[in-house]
Write a structure and sequence with these properties.
There is one protein chain. With about 375 residues, the protein is an alpha/beta fold. The chain has two domains: about 130 residues, Alpha-Beta Complex (Aspartate Aminotransferase, domain 1); about 240 residues, Type I PLP-dependent aspartate aminotransferase-like (Major domain) (Aspartate Aminotransferase, domain 2, 3-Layer(aba) Sandwich). It has 13 helices and twelve strands. Strand 6, helix 7 and strand 7 form a beta-alpha-beta unit. Helix 2 runs parallel beside helix 8 and helix 9 packs parallel to helix 13. The model has no long low-confidence stretch (mean pLDDT about 95).
Length: about 375
């Protein structure tokens, strides 16, 4: 039985062109970019070329002394931690952090830890369609707020958040907005300056790049304080030897994906709609969550009412279907999804919800086979 991989929001397989670009870095013998000899200078040029190319692709202001910043990190989790904790360290007397109730664990768990350290953490309510309640957000943002964190698109439901409304609310009090764009890159038009946010995170392995590579992007003059110390790399905001190969992998992956973004989006949307229609037509207890809101083209969270999600996940694994019960960073937990709980859904829907996330290497025959296997499993549980 062939495996059908429908867990691309957890990670994607690395693209051969990305792997080749990284291998070329290793074969060239590129060394520490901080070294002053000619091999070090060559490595530095490669890293800075990657930084500039990513900046151009993602809409950073690069042209003068007021240029935006891009800090390479080990991924989205580190980048989100650097933003949340780093801005807290530079917040002076301000002590309020506002986050949405549907954030990735790298933000929500960091916020919980900061709360234990005395930070006033406020959580924005979520509507049943999966979007945040902007009226509630407006009531929470005040002069004591040092940051508002709202993701661009949810990793579990795919629901796209009203980030322009969030920025508009926060601008009235000059409160910066941090946006986790990890799932959105390549699936939405993401232009950093046009978003109006103060900072944004990206990750390579969601767009067929290497795991362990990401970036925190910030506006000029809005760099966070360092969270750890030990060197002067990347303006000492993110110290540590930069990996030329990982920076190259991230850049190549983003460049390749954005180069075919419209074709990818069209294909993924057609496959997602085919999957959802095939399942909901055959199973009366199946319901697509977040379908009343704009969503990413590749993400489908389907609740099988009356079915235990963990039992179905294991049964689907046996049937050769790779999917998940929510965020991969919390997949070892048997607790219900915080995102679906925040949406105020019927507990029976939450208990039966699974996430299917498609990738560019999926095909129509694969989706048709997946429909058949999923419906067969759900019918006997």
């Amino acid at each position: 039985m062939s495996l059908i991989y429908l867990d691309n929001n957890a990670t994607t397989v690395i693209h051969p062109e990305v792997a080749n670009a990284m291998q070329a870095c290793h074969q060239q013998g590129l060394v520490n970019p901080e070294s002053q000899h000619q091999l070090g200078r060559q490595a530095r040029r490669q890293v800075e070329d990657c930084r500039e190319q990513l900046g151009m692709l993602l809409g950073l202001h690069l042209s003068d002394i007021h240029a935006d910043h891009l800090f390479f990190t080990s991924g989205g989790t580190e980048a989100n931690n650097l933003a949340i904790q780093g801005y807290r360290l530079g917040a002076d007397a301000k002590n309020r952090l506002v986050i949405s109730g549907i954030e990735h664990p790298s933000i929500s768990t960091t916020a919980q830890w900061l709360q234990s350290q005395g930070v006033d953490v406020q959580v924005v309510n979520t509507l049943t369609n999966g979007q945040i309640d902007c009226e509630h957000l407006e009531s929470l943002v005040n002069q004591d707020t040092f940051l508002v964190a709202v993701m661009l698109a949810n990793n579990e439901t795919g629901v796209i958040q009203p980030i322009s409304d969030v920025v508009s609310i926060c601008d009235r009090l000059s409160v910066p907005v941090h946006a986790d764009a990890v799932q959105a890159i390549g699936k939405l038009d993401v232009h950093f300056r046009e978003l109006g946010v103060g900072s944004m995170t990206i990750s390579a392995h969601k767009v067929h790049g290497p795991r362990g590579s990401g970036a925190l992007i910030t506006r000029h003059g809005h760099a966070p304080h360092p969270v750890f110390h030990g060197g002067f790399q990347q303006s000492a905001v993110r110290p540590g030897t930069e990996s030329v190969a990982l920076a190259t992998g991230l850049t190549t992956a983003v460049s390749n994906y954005l180069g075919s973004k419209d074709d990818h989006a069209s294909k993924l949307l057609a496959l997602r709609d085919r999957l959802e229609a095939g399942i909901t037509t055959q199973l009366v207890n199946a319901q697509v969550l977040g379908s009343d809101a704009p969503r990413l083209p590749n993400t489908s969270n389907i609740a099988f009412r009356g079915v235990d999600r963990q039992a179905m996940l294991m049964a689907l694994d046996v049937a050769g279907i790779c999917c998940s019960t929510g965020s991969a960073c919390a997949s070892g937990s048997s607790e219900p999804s915080p995102t679906l709980v925040a949406m105020g859904l019927d507990p029976e829907l939450i208990e039966g919800a699974l996430r299917f996330s498609l990738g560019i290497f999926n095909s129509e025959p694969e989706i048709d086979e997946a429909i058949e296997r999923i419906c067969a499993v759900a019918s006997v549980l």
